[in-house]
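Risk register update: the risk of archive-format incompatibility is retired. Evidence:
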Amino acid sequence: MAYEGWETTSGNLAGAYTSREKALSAVRAFVARTNEGEAESLALVHVGRRGRHTTIATGRDLVKMARQPAPGFFAVGTTGTGLPFAGPISGPFTQIQ
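Archived output:
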């Protein structure tokens, strides 16, 4: 299984990733470098073992998905871009006041 990031306006492959979280991390990094408007033309596609391509999310929905903490993580705040900052659930907890 693999995940691919596509730029849909040009039809170019933007990146290939071994996990969904790595692909979503790349989306978060892209939005941090540019802005959400630039992400309108992005798509995340899952490539199954038999080569079947399934679109996971595009545009704003993809950005929204990327903002959600990964399973096993907890959100503890946001970055200056409004993207979540998350830490491992097994890591040290600090009280937020």
